[in-house]
Amino acid sequence: MYLSKRGHDVCIVDNMAKRRWEAAVNATPLFTVPTIQDRIRTYKEKVKCDISFRYCDIAENPKLLNEIFDQFLPDAVIHYAEQPSAPYSHISAGAAIETQRNNILGTLALMYSVLHSNPSCHIIKLGTMGEYGTPDIDIEEGYLDITHNGRTARCLYPKKAGSIYHLSKCHDSHNLEFGCRAFNLRVTDLNQGVVYGIDTDETWLDTGLGTSFHYDAIFGTVLNRFLAQAAVGEALTVYGSGTQTRGFLNIRDTLACVEIALLNPAQEGEFRVFNQFTETWSILGLAQLVQSVTTCKIQNIPNPRVEDEDHYYNAKNSALTDLGLDPHLLTVQTIKDMYRSIWKHRKNIHVDRLMPTVKWRG
């Protein structure tokens, strides 16, 4: 909707897999999300702009994906079609395999459809800051200049993924970087931090256009989960010490970053990496911010993940601001606005889905 309102012709390609994954773990969004067909119809009525839709499993049906590319002839493709949850990828061997099958094979199919239809089409891929892990050195934007035995080289930044899901994203990045070197593709890898926020100018148009807001311990992000816990009077459950530090950004900035990448495409043969976050927070710091608004309690619980809790974290993120990103930072008012929306729907919150049920070590 954001891009369509700005004059871009948009075609959505999806197989609705995330709804199946959600159903498999009994995770329901806080707000009801209508079908994609209903959402497109509502959007068209409100804005008088059209968005087309094609159903396709890109990992399973690359032939159909080629046909879609031939018919729509995109100048750019924004690749969001991936299983997005680290906890989901650790539920079982089947979930781990499904995560990597969907993400890696889907990305490869997309890469070859671009080669088939229009090799100059700009691929904008949703990466993740989790690809880097938490190294004891500064995190650069995708690349690292190294000196070894008197010689220097510019290399992709070493990856140290913290989950099966994050590993799939690393493999995607390497495959696309190879595609740039071997096939002269143009790719922007947006290594995204944790997204927060509920509303955008587009979702305000109609209640049926709202975001898919997840608060559960599998698909919900940490701030969503904290606010949902506060709304039902539960303590905010902080994994381990809570000193884990991550990059965060507002959902409005996510949209702006995509458009910036779209309007400033990578060059042919260039694999470009932007670290897409606007500020860093510790998990405990987020809990304390929510506590300042809601007066709820904070409870530290055993960490279900295998991760460094006390670590150095200094990630660079200047590329997008240099291209014009004007970030929305996380404030007390942001928390109040989100909490107000969640409070109105607190009866929809299933308390039993707030606590972690998936452990990395089983």
What labels would you give this structure?
single chain, 362 residues, alpha/beta, Rossmann fold, 4-stranded parallel sheet, 3-stranded mixed sheet, 12 helices, 38% helix, 18% strand, globular
Terminal CA distance reads: 40 Å
The level of helicity is 25-40%
CATH class: Alpha Beta
Total number of strands: 13
What percent of residues are in strands? 15-25%
In DSSP terms (H or I, runs of 4 or more residues), the helix count works out at 12
Series of H and E elements: HEHHEHEHHEEEHEEHEEHEEHEHH
Structural class: alpha/beta
Q: CATH topology, which one? A: Rossmann fold
Unreliable residue runs: none
Dominant shape: globular
Q: List the strand order in the largest sheet.
A: 3-4-7-11
Please, what is the average pLDDT?
Answer: 97
Main sheet properties? 4 strands, parallel
State Rg. 20 Å
CATH superfamily label: NAD(P)-binding Rossmann-like Domain
Total individual domains: 1
**Can you tell me the CATH architecture?**
3-Layer(aba) Sandwich
Explain what the structure shows.
The chain is of the alpha/beta class and 362 residues long. The protein has one domain: Rossmann fold, CATH 3.40.50.720. Helices cover 38% and strands 18% of the residues. The strands form five sheets. It has a four-stranded parallel beta sheet with strand order 3-4-7-11, sandwiched between helices. A hairpin with a 2-residue loop joins strand 5 (143-148) and strand 6. Helix 6 runs parallel beside helix 7 (164-183), helix 8 (222-231) packs parallel to helix 10 and helix 10 (283-294) packs across helix 12 (332-344).
